[in-house]
Amino acid sequence: MVHGVERQKLVVGNWKMNGTRESVLKLLYSLQAGISTVPRTIQVVVLPSFVYLEETERRLKSTSIAWGAQNVHAADSGAFTGEVSAPMLRAFGCTYVLVGHSERRRYNQGSGEGIAEKFQAAIRAELRPILCVGETCEERQAGETLPIIYKQLDEVLGKVGIASFEKAVIAYEPVWAIGTGLAAAPQPVGAVITAIRDFLSKKDKTIAEKVGLLYGGSITRHEASELFKLPQVDGGLVGGASLNAAEFLDIARSF
Ligand code: PGA
Fold it and tell me: What integer best gives the mean pLDDT of the chain?
């Protein structure tokens, strides 16, 4: 490790397209009430649906919890019906945004170039992009985990350059582990995370040491403590389990 680089520990909740107005209010209230039990060294982040961002800001602005969005458009404004821009997210207090989540790559034709443009838009607006990478089950069986991840990283690096990664976070999310209840085992996760950092180091060692590297895919309170013991892992991206405040805070505390 480059001397003096202390990376932030991050536990991020991706709420996806979940929650009613009432359930989201309850969740925000419980997080607000419980966050003081999580050590301040761990940054907790929630990513609600766009429509709940205003309420999220209202409830969380006086807490240490940060929030962000699950997607962003590449342009800052314009005739893009139904889209939301990075400056709009900033105006609602967002500090993070997911880019290239596998569900968007799959259902919304997220091309490598489009993902790179979203990443760039986030950086322009001073949002921290959380770039998601990971292999499918078939790619894993074919032994292509690392080549696929390097390709996904190169698609963004080739457009934005390594300097733009200084404030970025990368989440290793094997597609086969998302929402399946089959979290990846800690040791292989550690190996992939190390490979990602080595890959970035070849472009710029100092920046590579600053990038937060998370794991995501079926994290529950049971997996979290083993996962967070790995020194390579800076945190987790939690889907399903983040909809339950008690479990999500347990996960954060297990760091
Ligand atoms: P999961 O989702 O924890 O429900 O598997 C993770 C994610 O998609 O970010």
Answer: 96
Q: Are 132 and 237 in contact (CB under 8 A)?
A: yes
Residue 222: which domain range? 9-252
Please count the structural domains in the chain: 1
Handedness of CA 221, 226, 230, 232 (dihedral sign): negative
| Prediction pTM value | 0.96
Predicted confidence at residue 187, as pLDDT, reads 93
pLDDT in tens, 84-106: 999 999 999 999 999 999 999 98
Nearest alpha carbon, ligand 1 atom 3? 239
Choosing from 70, 71, 218, 227 the residue with most ligand 1 atoms within 8 A of its CB, the one to mutate for a pocket test is 218
CATH number for position 40: 3.20.20.70
Give the largest Cα separation in the chain, rounded: 48
242 CA closest ligand 1 atom index: 3
Catalytic residue positions? 101, 173
